[in-house]
Write a structure and sequence with these properties.
The complex is a heterodimer of chains A (135) and B (341). Chain A has 135 residues and is an alpha/beta fold. Chain A has a single domain, classed as Rossmann fold (3-Layer(aba) Sandwich), CATH 3.40.50.280. Chain A contains 5 helices and 5 strands. A 5-stranded parallel beta sheet of chain A has the order 2-1-3-4-5, with helices on both faces. With 341 residues, chain B is α/β, with parallel strands linked by helices. Chain B is 43% helix and 14% strand. Chain B contains 12 helices and 10 strands. In chain B, the strands form 2 sheets. Chain B has a 7-stranded parallel beta sheet with strand order 4-2-5-1-6-7-10, sandwiched between helices. In chain B, strands 8-9 form a two-stranded antiparallel ribbon. In chain B, α1 crosses α2 and α2 crosses α3. Classes of the chains: A alpha/beta (135), B alpha/beta (341). At the A-B interface, α1, β2 and α2 of A face α2, β3 and β4 of B.
């Protein structure tokens, strides 16, 4: 009963409709023993922050292939903070140009995982980041 | 101290505190138990509605439409605060889960009068998780007037929901089985309201007819559902408080995609509540639920205490004798009982 499960929200903000990557990540996290709340396509940052709050997740994974990540990601971070959830770890997947990576990491994103990433790497990163807070 | 504070915040409508409490309660932490103790006197007001049925019959979509209706009711009715607990299965291999019920509930986003919480079964087989009942208590205390509990895709024996909910809605869809499926034991028997969803599909008449004939074959009688789906029939002499008319489950057609039939479903759920309240069934269901929960906790803690009180490796020795087939399981229990006394 008293097991501690890592809960992760996987969301696709913005307007692109390619959710294969998000589903692959959701599946890999499930296989790593995490509880994954999958919210589907075309979510606004407001919807994502609200779901993260109600589900009390430890981490939020955003998949963006539309190029709008520099608008969407800061907004999600801002809303999480406004809701009192600054402890929630945010990671990113999709197509992110190299020059944006340092900026996103500086904003507080814990990792950016593009095409070709092995699932071990983000599973390990998420677990480490979440458990670091809980010990 | 912290628990009291958290409980106060939940009662005051703080959604972050509510979400954190649900996590603590679901994980069975000490803090979660303390908060639940604080909140329990505030429970007992919400109408608990279970939504169950096979995978792909449209439970989540139906919940989405139903809650939209509760939030924007017909003129003259007041809108209700609604919470949803959506249960999906835990993988028996990894212990992980994909909780996807929110995908169908996107219309409800941004409404402060709705709270959606997904949970995994974490090994329970009855269609809901063992902590579902406790989560529902927290949401009840937080002031949600209606709590909808969506089970995992349920087939025939996932009937624990009937023990938890006041009103159980069983969702069917055309083309899933013949009339023998409908008269088999289990999920059909727990329905207070039957819904044939996807009523725009071919075969809806056949499905409805099969359900209707199954209902006509059954003879309603007062009974209560015990743990793990065990039914106990209450005979008249044993002092059942339940008398008078029996509830006949209505069969409704809905199309969750466009909302057809949703006001009728909402009315049927309300009628069932009114029926329970006018016949004493409400108190009866409350009593069974709390008594079952009490009994279960008592059993668990008795077993725990008993095992803790056994000398040293007694349990292992008796288990060893059992594994070597020197004694039967019944003898093993008898031996432990004798030794303890």
């Amino acid at each position: 009963m008293s097991e501690r499960k890592i809960r992760v929200l996987i969301a696709k903000p913005g307007l692109d409709g390619h959710d294969r990557g998000a589903k692959v990540v959701a599946r890999a996290l499930r296989d790593a023993g995490m509880e994954v709340i999958y919210t589907g396509l075309r979510q606004t940052p407001e919807m994502i922050a609200e779901a993260a709050l109600q589900e009390d997740v430890d981490a939020v994974g955003l998949s963006v292939l539309s190029g709008a990540h520099m608008a969407l990601v800061p907004r999600v971070l801002e809303l999480l903070k406004a809701n009192g959830q600054e402890h929630v770890k945010v990671f990113l997947g999709g197509i992110v140009p190299d020059e944006d990576v340092p900026l996103l990491l500086e904003m507080g994103v814990i990792g950016i995982y593009g095409p070709g990433t092995l699932s071990d790497s983000y599973v390990k990163d998420i677990r480490k980041a979440v458990l670091a807070d809980n010990t | 101290m912290v628990a009291v504070d958290l409980a106060q915040r939940v009662l005051a409508g703080d959604r972050l505190a509510l979400a954190r409490t649900l996590t603590q309660v679901e994980n069975g932490t000490e803090e979660g138990q303390l908060v639940l103790n604080q909140l329990f006197p505030h429970t007992g007001k919400a109408h608990l509605v279970g939504i169950t049925g096979a995978s792909g019959t449209g439970k989540s979509s139906l919940v989405n439409q139903l809650v939209r209706h509760y939030r924007k009711p017909d003129p003259g009715e007041t809108s209700k605060q609604v919470a949803i607990v959506a249960v999906d299965p835990t993988s028996p291999f990894s212990g992980g889960a994909i909780l996807g019920d929110r995908i169908r509930m996107r219309d409800l986003a941004g409404d402060p009068g709705v709270f959606i919480r997904s949970m995994a079964t974490r090994g329970s087989l009855g269609g809901i998780a063992s902590a579902t009942s406790a989560l529902v208590q927290v949401l009840d205390a937080a002031g949600y007037e209606l709590v909808l509990i969506e089970t995992v895709g349920a087939g025939q024996s996932e009937v624990d929901i009937a023990r938890l909910a006041h009103t159980t809605v069983v969702v069917e869809a055309p083309g899933l089985g013949d009339d023998i499926q409908a008269i088999k034991a289990g999920i059909m028997e727990i329905a207070d309201v039957l819904v044939v969803n996807k009523a725009d599909l071919q075969g809806v008449e056949n499905t409805e007819r099969a359900l209707r004939s199954a209902l006509n074959l059954s003879h309603p009688r007062p009974r209560r559902l015990l743990h793990h789906g065990r039914l106990e029939t209450i005979d008249e002499e044993s002092g059942s408080t339940h008398q008078g008319p029996m509830w006949q489950p209505p069969i409704l057609r809905t199309i969750a995609l466009d909302g057809t039939g949703i006001p009728g479903l909402s009315d049927a759920i309300a009628s069932h509540r009114a029926f329970l309240e006018s016949t004493g069934g409400w108190e009866e269901r409350e009593r069974w639920r709390l008594q079952t929960e009490f009994d279960l906790l008592l059993q668990n803690s008795l077993v725990e205490n008993f095992l803790a009180g056994l000398p040293g490796d007694e349990y292992q020795q008796v288990l060893g004798a059992l594994l070597e087939r020197r004694i039967s399981p019944l003898q093993a229990v008898a031996q432990l009982m004798d030794d303890a006394i």
